[in-house]
Amino acid sequence: MSEFTVGESDFLLDGRPVRLLSGALHYFRVHEGHWRHRLEMLRAMGLNCVETYVPWNLHQPGPGRYRDVRAVGRFLDAARAAGLWAIVRPGPYICAEWENGGLPHWVTGEPGTRARTRDERFLFHVRNWFHRLLHEIVPRQIDRGGPVIMVQVENEYGSYGSDADYLEQLAGLLRVKGVTVPLFTSDGPEDHMLTGGSLPGVLATVNFGSHARAAFETLRRHRPEGPLMCMEFWCGWFDHWGGEHVVRDPDEAAGALREILECGASVNLYMAHGGTSFGGWAGANRGGGELHAGPLEPDVTSYDYDAPVDEYGRPTEKFRRLREVLAAYHPGPLPEPPSPPAPLGAPADVVLTAWAPLGDVLEALGGEETVTPVPPTFEELGVARGLVRYEVGVPGPRRPYPLTVRGLRDLAVVYVDGERAGVLTEDEPRLKEPVAGPARVELWVESLGRVTYGPRSGEAKGITGGVLHERQYLHGVRARGLDLDAFDDGVEVVPFGTPPGDGAPGLYRGTVTVGGAGDARLELPGWTRGFVWVNGFGLGRYWSVGPQRSLYVPGPVLREGENEVWVLELQEAGRGRGRPSAPGLLPVRAVRGGRTQGVDVTATPGNPSGENPVTPE
């Protein structure tokens, strides 16, 4: 048993000063079979601590329903076995470029509930969640023989609100539930953020990517005493669909880290290893400057983050540069990095032998159909991640008029009398061709990820306004949702037939036979947008707009011999090269060295179709 405390200028372990050299690693973005390897990579980089968020929405899909909360405890046990301390950031809000910032859709979508405030309805849900979650954290605190040395109160709250009573209630709840290690807050190094996000008597830390001395000077104006810590040193960054891959020069990142440590501060590398937003859990941001009210910017599936340990668990040049800096603060020689996980033995092709149209998939796996005067939102239909089919009639006879979707979030493939009429977005909500009545209109609306940061977080998905023909609302809307969680129980109930030759949207099913099962990547040249599962494990979203060109397949997901693959294409398969035939083929490529094989960081913006697959170097 040990005691970890916050002193006047240092962190103290049993009364002796210690410096925290931590790295962020999200257990939920790394296959459990790889936890040990990734934690050993952190040790080899020169770190003595691991930090993780806890996503509430992943573990509580609905009121009173819980999903593998024990994974938190298993990860903390793995950290202890690896010889690392642990910092836990349980939220309830986490940001993390994760769907809805970790808040459950059924909480933020509950009528009248005001998330991230002292609102009693919100706090009621938080208390129930913390009661379950803290059973995994409290027994693993350092004063009980575990690795947990600190627990965060909320997350960057000063970037969002100023409800000090809310923060105080959260801190009190953590204490009442048994948290005895130091609590802390983390915010940007700006006066308004530290004023709104910090609490008296609770350690305040700051988040930044550069200019450490200026950041700590700001912190000292608010907290003259206490250890200095950068809780998020942004040594890389994340990507958006349709954008370019973001990188940070390794030497420049190492210089910024050196400046932090020269200030006598502790640090947490965000991210040390980013991993992958499996299962369609990637969130989204809003552009538009400080108000974050601009266009939606969905986050890609890869959370590689240009981190020192890449998505495949391999050391990068940034790993080596940061390791050189950290070695000077280590009492002895650093351990050597463990061997990387084995790659797939050889490239293989996925043979797609079955297909079901989206309507049949919806009938088999979707929720109950509703009929309402106006379109219900995803939240009202209980859909967390996935899509909703809206059906509405245009009365007639009437002349052709423009058809517009008001409040569309986020993307709709539209059919008029069974024929595809266009793809609509929030920024382009009107069909190019007018629609005459009578007509039957189907809108397959997909969520591209709920906003994770800023005042627009928690916003509803689906059709949040209505469907207009000219200036007239169309009423009597049929709606039915298809949540990605529905695939957890398999697809045996789906009535499959022969794959079409025209690349129609739908659920494609097939197999891939591999030898020497190991880490791989899945390429989908010619496919447009959708989701992939291998042996029932959700790899996440693919999208031809890039910059991500392939999906990471963790080795523990594959097995020697035959493996089952499902591809849910939502728009069109077969743009240019790679058009699936009967049977279709999807190349699966081995990972063999090279930095860019999981995500094609050299892809040019002028080739957004994804028709040129990444090949082994």
From TrEMBL:
Q: Which residues form the Beta-galactosidase galactose-binding domain?
A: 505-563
Highest taxon listed in the record's lineage: Bacteria
Matching entries from InterPro entries are given as: B-gal_1-like, BetaGal1-like_ABD1, BetaGal_gal-bd, Galactose-bd-like_sf, GH, Gly_Hdrlase_35_cat, Glyco_hydro_35_CS, Glycoside_Hdrlase_35
Q: Which residues, if any, are the signal sequence?
A: none
Q: Which GO terms describe its molecular function?
A: beta-galactosidase activity
What segments bear the compositional bias annotation Polar residues?
604-617
Q: What is the enzyme's class at the highest EC level?
A: hydrolase
Alphabetized UniProt keyword annotations: Glycosidase, Hydrolase
Q: Where is this region: Disordered?
A: 594-617
Q: Using the record's annotation, list all stretches that form the Beta-galactosidase 1-like first all-beta domain.
A: 375-476
Catalysed reactions, as listed in the record: Hydrolysis of terminal non-reducing beta-D-galactose residues in beta-D-galactosides
Q: E.C. number, please?
A: 3.2.1.23
In this chain the Glycoside hydrolase 35 catalytic domain maps to 11-328
- Mention any Pfam family matching this sequence: BetaGal_ABD_1
Indicate yes or no for the key word Hydrolase.
yes
Family note: Belongs to the glycosyl hydrolase 35 family.
The molecule here is called Beta-galactosidase
Q: Which organism is it from?
A: Streptomyces griseochromogenes
